[in-house]
Structure to design on (654 residues):
C-alpha cells in the first residue's frame, strides 16, 4: 500500500508540475499584449501611456528574462500570490477567485456526490428488471448524451421563463447582500436549485447506465452463477454484484471529474451564476489572462485533490488494494 | 459530458476475470473462410434483431443524412443577416430566425456538419493515439510501460478543458477560416481525449500478450508491430470499434462545450455556437425556443444514438449480455 501511494504521489507531483507549467504559459501564449490592452482601455495620453507601459510591465513582472519569470511564478505560487487582475485592475487574482469558489463548490460537490449515489442505486435496481430497465435505460442515455449547457438552457426556459417558478440568473436576489441570514440562505437555495438540477441530471444518467451495465456483467459472471446454483437468495447475489460493480464506478468517478467541472462551468454561464465559470467567460472577454491563469490553477489543484481523495476511497473500498496491490496496475 | 459509465466499463483493469472472458467472447475470428462467413451471417442475424443497435444506428444515420444533404435544401447561409427578426418557424424559414435575422435551419444543418467533422476527426485521432500508446505499453511492458503509463495518467488528470481553452484561444485568433477551424479544434480534442482509450487498450493487450498464439507468432520471428497488427488487434477488433464510437460521441460533446464558451472557430457555425448566441442574445427571455432547441436536440440525438448503438454492439459481440 505504501508503494502504491508513493507511486500515486509521484504521479500527482509530475502532473502538478506539468499543469503549472502549462498554466504559466497561458498569458504568454495568448494573443494580444495584456499590458497594452489595459492601457488602451484607460485612454491615456501617449506620454503617459509610455510611462504606464513601463510601470505595468514591472508590476506584472514582465521585465525580466523568461526563465526568471517562470521561477518567479513558482516562488509567488508558494506564497499564494497569483498576481493582479487586469479586468478589475488593482485587485489581486486570489481575492477575486476566493469570492467565486464557494459558489462553484456549492454547485459541484452536491451534484457530484448525489448523482453518483442516486445513479448507482437506480442503475443497480434497473439491471435485469424488465420494466424498470426499459424506462431507466433510454432516459439515462438521453440524459448522458445531453450537453450540460443545453439541459441548463431548457430547464431555465421551462421553469424560469415559461412557468416562472425559478429565477433565471444570479446566485441570490439582487436586493440582498451575502450574509448568514435566513432570508439570504433561502434566496440562495432558490437560485441554486436549477443549476444544481441540470448538473445532477446529466451525471445521474451516466452513472445509472454505467452501473446497470456493470451489474449485468457481474450477474453473468461465474461467481454469481455459482452463488445462484448454491441456492443463495437473489438479493444476496445482487448485493455481491453491486459491491463488485462499485469499484469500476469509483475509477470512473475519477475519470469523470474533469468533465463534470467543465459542465459546472458552462452551467454557470447559462445562469450567470457568480462562480468560476462566469469568471472564466468574463476573463476571456476582457483578455484578463492573469485571472484566467489563476482560475485554471485553482481548477487543476481542485481536480488533483479530488482525484487523490478518490484514490484513497478506492483503497478503502477494494480489499485487494488493502492487501497490497501490485503497483503496475495503477 | 463524457460517457462516464461507459468509460469505467471499458476500463477493465479492475476486473481481470471478466475482462478476460470478454476478450475471448468478443472476437474469436479464426482465419478459416467458411467459419468467417458463418460468423458474419451470425453477426448480421443478431445485429438486425438487436433493437438497441437498430435504433441507435438509424438515429445517427438520419442525422448524418441531414448533415450531408440539409445544406443543399436551403438558399440561406448560416451567417447571412437580413431576414425577419426572431420569427417563428414558417415555410420561408423552416426553423425560424434568430434575433438578428439569421436562418436557424441553415445554421443547424451546417452546425451538424461541423459536429460530425469534429466527432470523426477528434474521435479518430484519439483512437489512433490511444491504440498506439496502449499497444506499445501493453506489448512492451517494463520501463516503456511505466513511462507511457505516467504520461497517460498526467494527461488524464489535467483538466482537458483548461488545456483546450488555451490552445483554442491561440488558434482562433490566428483567424483560420471556416472548416479548417473545426479541423484544428478536432485535432486538439483528439490530442487530449485519448488517455482512457489508451488505458483500456493496454489492459486488453496485457490479457492477450501471454497467450499461446502470440508466443507462436513471436517464435516465427514476426516483428512486434506485425504481431500487434495481425495477432492482437484482430482479437479485440470489436472492442476497438466500440472505443471509437465512444470517443466519437465524446468529441462532439467537448466540441460543443468549447464552442459554447466562445472558443470555437470564429466566422463559422456550429451547434455549440448556436447555443452560445442564443444565450448571449437572451433567447430565453424572448422565448424564441426554435433558436436553442434544435442544436441541443441534434447533439443529444447523435451522441445518444452513438451510445445506444455501442451497447447494442456490446450485446452482439458478447453473447452473455443478450436479453434472455
Amino acid at each position: 500500500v505504501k508503494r502504491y501511494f508513493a507511486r500515486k504521489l509521484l504521479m500527482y507531483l509530475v502532473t502538478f508540475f506539468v499543469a503549472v507549467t502549462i498554466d504559466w504559459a497561458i498569458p504568454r501564449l495568448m494573443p494580444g499584449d495584456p499590458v497594452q490592452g489595459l492601457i488602451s482601455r484607460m485612454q491615456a495620453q501617449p506620454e503617459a501611456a509610455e510611462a504606464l507601459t513601463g510601470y505595468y510591465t514591472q508590476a506584472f513582472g514582465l521585465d525580466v528574462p523568461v526563465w526568471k519569470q517562470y521561477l518567479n511564478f513558482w516562488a509567488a505560487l508558494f506564497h499564494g500570490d497569483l498576481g493582479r487582475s487586469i479586468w478589475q485592475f488593482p485587485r489581486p487574482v486570489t481575492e477575486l477567485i476566493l469570492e467565486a469558489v464557494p459558489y462553484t463548490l456549492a454547485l459541484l460537490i452536491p451534484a457530484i456526490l448525489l448523482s453518483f449515489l442516486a445513479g448507482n442505486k437506480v442503475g443497480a435496481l434497473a439491471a435485469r428488471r424488465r420494466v424498470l430497465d426499459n424506462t431507466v435505460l433510454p432516459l439515462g442515455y438521453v440524459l448522458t448524451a445531453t450537453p450540460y449547457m443545453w439541459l441548463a438552457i431548457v430547464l431555465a426556459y421551462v421553469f424560469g421563463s415559461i412557468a416562472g417558478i425559478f429565477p433565471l440568473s444570479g446566485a441570490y436576489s439582487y436586493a440582498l447582500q451575502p450574509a448568514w441570514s435566513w432570508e439570504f440562505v433561502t434566496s440562495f437555495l432558490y437560485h441554486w436549485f436549477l443549476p444544481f438540477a441540470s448538473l445532477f441530471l446529466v451525471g445521474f444518467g451516466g452513472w445509472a447506465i454505467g452501473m446497470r451495465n456493470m451489474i449485468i456483467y457481474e450477474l453473468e459472471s461465474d461467481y454469481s452463477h455459482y452463488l445462484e446454483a448454491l441456492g443463495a437468495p437473489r438479493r444476496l447475489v445482487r448485493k455481491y454484484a453491486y459491491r463488485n460493480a462499485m469499484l469500476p464506478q469509483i475509477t470512473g468517478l475519477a475519470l469523470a471529474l474533469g468533465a463534470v467541472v467543465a459542465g459546472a462551468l458552462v452551467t454557470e454561464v447559462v445562469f450567470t451564476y457568480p462562480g468560476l465559470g462566469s469568471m472564466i467567460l468574463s476573463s476571456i472577454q476582457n483578455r484578463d489572462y492573469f485571472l484566467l491563469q489563476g482560475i485554471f490553477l485553482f481548477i487543476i489543484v481542485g481536480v488533483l485533490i479530488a482525484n487523490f481523495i478518490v484514490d484513497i476511497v478506492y483503497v478503502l473500498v477494494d480489499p485487494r488494494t488493502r492487501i497490497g496491490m501490485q503497483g503496475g496496475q495503477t | 459530458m463524457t460517457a462516464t459509465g461507459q468509460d469505467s466499463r471499458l476500463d477493465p483493469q479492475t476486473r481481470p476475470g471478466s475482462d478476460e472472458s470478454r476478450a475471448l467472447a468478443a472476437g474469436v475470428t479464426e482465419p478459416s473462410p467458411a467459419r468467417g462467413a458463418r460468423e458474419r451471417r451470425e453477426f448480421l442475424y443478431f445485429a438486425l434483431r438487436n433493437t438497441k443497435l437498430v435504433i441507435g444506428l438509424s438515429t445517427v444515420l438520419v442525422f448524418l443524412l441531414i448533415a450531408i444533404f440539409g445544406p443543399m435544401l436551403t438558399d440561406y447561409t448560416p451567417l447571412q443577416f437580413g431576414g425577419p427578426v426572431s420569427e417563428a418557424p414558417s415555410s420561408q424559414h423552416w426553423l425560424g430566425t434568430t434575433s438578428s435575422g439569421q436562418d436557424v435551419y441553415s445554421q443547424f444543418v451546417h452546425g451538424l456538419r461541423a459536429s460530425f467533422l469534429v466527432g470523426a476527426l477528434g474521435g479518430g485521432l484519439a483512437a489512433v493515439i490511444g491504440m498506439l500508446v496502449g499497444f506499445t505499453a501493453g506489448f512492451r511492458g517494463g520501463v516503456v510501460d511505466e513511462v507511457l503509463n505516467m504520461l497517460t495518467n498526467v494527461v488524464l488528470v489535467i483538466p482537458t478543458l483548461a488545456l483546450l481553452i488555451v490552445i483554442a484561444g491561440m488558434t482562433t485568433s490566428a483567424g483560420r477560416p471556416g472548416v479548417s477551424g473545426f479541423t484544428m479544434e478536432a485535432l486538439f480534442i483528439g490530442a487530449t481525449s485519448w488517455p482512457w482509450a489508451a488505458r483500456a487498450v493496454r489492459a486488453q493487450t496485457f490479457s492477450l500478450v501471454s497467450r499461446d498464439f502470440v508466443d507462436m507468432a513471436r517464435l516465427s520471428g514476426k516483428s512486434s508491430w506485425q504481431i500487434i497488427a495481425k495477432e492482437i488487434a484482430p482479437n479485440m477488433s470489436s472492442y476497438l470499434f466500440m472505443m471509437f464510437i465512444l470517443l466519437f460521441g465524446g468529441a462532439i460533446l467537448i466540441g460543443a462545450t468549447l464552442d459554447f464558451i466562445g472558443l470555437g472557430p470564429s466566422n463559422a457555425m456550429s451547434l455549440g455556437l448556436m447555443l452560445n448566441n442564443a444565450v448571449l442574445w437572451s433567447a430565453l427571455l424572448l422565448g424564441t425556443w426554435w433558436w436553442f432547441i434544435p442544436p441541443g436536440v441534434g447533439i443529444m440525438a447523435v451522441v445518444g444514438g452513438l451510445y445506444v448503438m455501442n451497447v447494442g454492439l456490446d450485446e452482439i459481440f458478447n453473447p452473455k449480455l443478450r436479453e434472455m
Chain A touches chain B through 83 residues (CB under 8 Å). Chain A has a mean pLDDT of 77.
